[in-house]
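Our preliminary data section would be incomplete without showing what the modeling component actually yields. Below, a chain of 319 amino acids is followed by its predicted structure, encoded as tokens that our downstream tools consume directly.
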Amino acid sequence: MHSSELTQELRNLATRNGIVLFGVAPIERFEPMPPYYDRVPKGQDPRDFLPTAKSVISMAVPILNAALDVPARFNEMELEMYPDDTKSEWLEAVYNRICHYNQNDILLSASQFVGQHLLLAGYDSMIFPTESVHIENETERMAKSKFGYLSGPISHRHCATRAGLGEFGYHNIVITPQFGTRQRFSTVVTEAELEPTPLLDKPLCLREKCGLCLKACYKNAIFLRDDERFIDYRTVDKVRNDVIFIDTPSKTSPVRCRDRSNDGEQFIVRGDCLRICPLPKMPKNLSGRLQGIINDWRAGWRIGDERKKRTLPIDSAHE
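Predicted structure:
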């Protein structure tokens, strides 16, 4: 079967099973690429899972706007049906159910269907979990790991940028033309040679003109990669704003990002860096906190002001 015909069959199958974005990266795109030429960590290259891999499929489903924004707005409201000491925890559960688990179920099922189709066509394939894989004593094991954190078996985000679905933003999250930051991804690695999707031809992230995501992160968990104090598998290089971010221009402290506490309040609803992103258009119905940040930005606040406030993550393995 011709590669374009098989690719279209897989795209149609994925669409029938709830997938909205579908892209293909040839395996060569997982070699170091400009501008940063990051090497894929050992054990996370698609060829580590399938040595005969020739193509990587990236698929995505959107997060509904209201589903993402409501938990943060409700966190600022008095809810008559829920005591204050359980409200944020309840909202976090709502957020996870409708903005993570729901999409994960669709993505994993669609990945299996695509893998089955490829198997019947004579091609081996590999699919991956679409949510975190927790292990016993995870916090303790994270502290012992090389960079102070554990990751999933493959980076769905890097697969998405290499499959032409989007580019990284300053917040370490993939931005797509259709949904901005509001989607989740899954990945299928296959030995079938499929028709590649073109890479983006122009940047999406507003870069130095914006920086709202850095301001919105109340845990100060995001560091642009030229901050030499925060070390991980990526090379440390100056952030170039004239190129498409196939690799992330930032580094995130996962432990700090997952911390729900803020000024004594527990179980704060996460995800404000996603909510505030003004792409593909400025979001509506934001929380008062995020709308205030946007108002300050419109009044003249810029990213340089926030970068001066960045502090080294207390959980860094290389303090």
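The chain has one domain: 3-307. Residues 84-120 form the longest helix (37 residues). Preliminary results of this kind motivate Aim 1 of the renewal.
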